Amino acid sequence: AILMEINACNIVDTTSVVDTIPKIDSAIFYPNPVYGSQVLIVKTKDQIDSLDDVEVFDLMGRIQNTSITQTDKNQINLSFYGKRAGIYFVRLKAGGKNIKGKIAYVP
After folding, report:
1. Who's near 13: CB < 8 A, 6+ residues apart?
2. Which of 30, 49, 70, 96 is the most buried (most CB within 10 A)?
3. Distance between the two ends of the chain, CA-based, in angstroms?
4. What does the pLDDT look like over 42-61, one tens digit per residue?
5. pTM score, two decimals?
């Protein structure tokens, strides 16, 4: 005799799920790669009224301390000086919106 077991599965249509995390329409990270003492400039199309949080991660997911300066309502500068060569991920939270970027740094 052959025994068969049938499990009921719920199938959820994910096409109607809306991304609930708002993002800033466009951001430019330059220069990329960043060399030596150059400053990374993050320029956004949208105005940044309040900079809530800035996080820089290395490839291992470790948070890196960086110098951050908001120079204009749509521009932020980050210094990677003194960091090891490599790829870094930048995540900015501003006014309830997110900006993400991938940066190469060469000392």
Report:
1. none
2. 70
3. 70
4. 998 878 887 889 999 999 99
5. 0.73
Helices of type H across 17-71: none
Both tokens of residue 28?
């430019």
CB atoms closer than 10 angstroms to residue 60? 6
- 19, 95 contact by CB (below 8 A): no
Please give the backbone phi and psi of residue 47, each rounded to the nearest 5 degrees, phi first. -80, 140
Give which of 73, 74, 72, 67 is closest to 40, Cα–Cα: 67
Token code pair at residue 95:
């006014």
The tokens describing 25, both together, are: 């329409």
